[in-house]
Design brief:
The complex is a heterodimer of chains A (285) and B (282). Chain A is mainly α and 285 residues long. Chain A contains eleven helices and no strands. Chain A has one domain: Orthogonal Bundle (MetI-like fold), CATH 1.10.3720. Chain A starts with 6 loop residues before the first helix and ends in an 11-residue tail after the last helix. By secondary structure, chain B is an all-alpha fold. In chain B, helix 5 packs across helix 7. The longest helix of chain B has 34 residues. In chain B, 45% of the residues are buried. The chains are: A mainly alpha (285), B mainly alpha (282). At the A-B interface, helix 1, helix 3, helix 4, helix 5 and helix 6 of A face helix 1, helix 3, helix 4, helix 5 and helix 6 of B.
Chain lengths: 285, 282
């Protein structure tokens, strides 16, 4: 006998589950549909077109914002993954004073409201610029570098959470064997640990990348005149005639990010299978 | 060795995370003079104004809390059956179906909010569909759909359901099935088993799920900005406006610090239920 549910309850739960899946995907499906619709995004449909997609190509500021986002996402995820590896190693392979404090610090960006964090960095940049202007007559200003700085901080805990589980399961004996065979610790890392960690690093990179590419709150305070894609999208939403174009790009990005996320998940699973499989459902959390 | 490993990440976090937050705290007390209008004198005046009864901003804060609470409760109630179904009723395909629910969360947040803006407008997808079906006349659209508190709550719930299903699923999936069998062997029916065994054992997961939504939504300002309109204006919007539309950054800093303190207090109270991972145990 099934203890968790009766037959009737199971039917209801199944129906509820699929209704919820529809609820989750229907709005996105609507967007995709209307990115091929000739008129405004409303019913009745007014004919099939692909010109929203081709219009995008000639919209320089839109393309520019996508380029800005790509640069920020690449730079911030590379840095976040590098820092994430260091923290993961320290937390797992070393004993040191104040480990709980370090752990609390690196994970606290998970809960800080991005609004508050963005403002904090904005204030710091304002102060630094004020001092620089007074002393040297020049200033740094806001821009992509500021967004990168902020995105590294918020992406760091996610990269650590992706790297830790795999590192935890990489047997220390492999590293010890390499050392016994005469490898320096740098060499051990480069030739043994790093290649074995690769799947987790790629996953971590992809997660950090999607996070950064989509991040609005922090970027809106720090981007200045170098708008990233989400900041640009927001500023353009007020122009109704641009809406179909924005929808078209958004749908493309949605598909791309879905592919990225799925490949990150696949990478994680492959790694998992390679090293055993006890943390199957842990995912990104 | 350890120092070498930790110095770069710690330096980054101290410079770009801890220092800025401390700086906002100092600024909210007037310790730093950034604009000519800033006093540059340390005082709690701005804090007192904010916390005084009848302050507009405090009112907005409670409004935000009310909306976050509603959203969190609704989201948890909707996600629990999903977690229950996936953990206890599905055998094969369990993780595929779980992924199906989670994937939207991992894709563009902005796109998901934008979708609702397009759906809910007076001339939006939903209303125009009703016009085409002759359910409503074009002169009489359902206008409370967009730019309302309803819209904010709907979209926030939509955004957070996939995320919350996960901790609930994990807590139910880790449940020892033999306990359920034992309850049934001892004569409990399914409802009794659920209320006396399953529900209490999944309570930590439920609480974690609740915190997962409640904490980030208190400071939410993007969703109200897109679908909230004037009646959906929240505490986070007030903070953003203080920094982007004026130079009263000092009041803005008070509000931002207050939000941070509330979040920190919530995490201090309930954080132990939200196990990020037990890496600090040794």
């Amino acid at each position: 006998m099934e203890i968790a549910t009766s037959k009737g309850a199971r039917v209801w739960l199944t129906v509820f589950f699929w209704l919820l899946v529809v609820f989750l995907y229907l709005p996105i499906a609507f967007l995709a549909l209307f990115s091929f619709n000739a008129g405004d995004p409303s019913f009745p449909l007014s004919g099939f077109t692909t010109h929203w997609f081709t219009d995008v190509l000639s919209n320089d500021s839109l393309i520019g914002s996508l380029r800005h986002s790509a640069v920020v996402a690449t730079a911030s995820s590379l840095i976040a993954v590098a820092l994430g590896v260091m923290v993961s190693f320290a937390l797992l392979r070393r004993r040191f004073f104040g480990k709980p404090a370090v752990s609390a610090l690196v994970f606290s960006p998970l809960v800080i409201p991005y609004l508050v964090f963005g403002i904090s960095l904005l204030l710091v940049f304002a102060l630094v610029d004020k001092v620089l202007t007074a002393w040297f007559g020049s200033y740094i200003g806001l821009g992509l570098h500021a967004v990168v700085i902020g995105h590294v901080v918020v992406a760091l805990p996610y990269t650590i959470l992706t790297i830790l589980p795999l590192l935890e399961r990489l047997s220390v004996s492999l590293e010890e064997a390499a050392k016994d065979l005469g490898a320096s610790s740098r060499e051990t890392f480069r030739r043994v640990t790093f290649p074995l960690l690769m799947p987790a690093l790629i996953s971590a990179f992809l997660i950090a990348f999607t996070l950064s590419f989509d991040e609005y709150a922090i970027a809106s305070f720090l981007a200045g005149s170098q708008e990233t894609w989400p900041v640009f999208l927001f500023s353009q939403l007020r122009v109704p005639s641009l809406l179909p174009q924005l929808i078209a790009v958004s749908s493309l990005i949605f598909i791309a990010s879905m592919l990225l996320v799925l490949s990150a998940e696949m990478g994680r699973r492959i790694a998992e299978r390679r090293y055993g499989s006890e943390y199957a459902a842990r995912g990104f959390i | 060795m350890t120092a070498g490993l930790l110095s770069a990440p710690m330096l980054w976090l101290l410079l770009f995370f801890v220092a800025p937050v401390v700086y906002v705290a100092a600024y909210s007390l007037g310790a730093i003079k950034l604009f000519p209008a800033d006093t540059g004198v340390i005082s709690f005046d701005d804090w007192r104004h904010f916390l005084a009864g009848g302050s507009v901003y405090l009112g907005l804060f409670w409004k935000s809390i009310r909306i976050s609470l509603t959203v969190s409760i609704v989201v948890v109630l909707l996600s629990y059956p999903i977690g229950y179904f996936l953990a206890l009723c599905v055998r094969r395909m369990k993780y595929v179906l779980l992924l199906l629910v989670i994937v939207p969360f991992l894709t563009s947040f902005l796109l998901r909010v934008l979708a609702w803006k397009v759906i809910l407008g007076d001339r939006g997808i939903l209303n125009s569909l009703l016009f085409s079906l002759h359910v409503r006349s074009p002169d009489d659209p359902i206008s409370w759909l967009l730019y309302s508190q309803f819209a904010v709550m709907l979209v926030l719930a939509y955004v957070w359901i996939p995320f919350v299903a996960l901790p609930i699923f994990v807590s139910l999936n880790n449940l020892d099935r033999s306990l359920l069998e034992a309850a049934s062997d001892l004569g409990a029916n399914r409802w009794k088993t659920f209320f006396r065994v399953t529900l209490p054992l999944s309570a930590p997961g439920l609480l974690a799920a609740f915190i997962f939504v409640f904490v980030p939504t208190i400071g939410e300002f993007v969703t109200p900005l897109l679908v909230g309109g004037p009646s959906g204006y929240l505490f986070g919007n007030a903070i953003q406006d203080l920094f982007t539309r004026g130079t009263d950054w000092q009041t803005g800093s008070v509000l931002a610090m207050f939000l941070l303190l509330v979040v920190a207090a919530l995490m201090a109270l309930f954080g132990r239920f939200v196990q990020v991972r037990a890496v600090t145990s040794d």
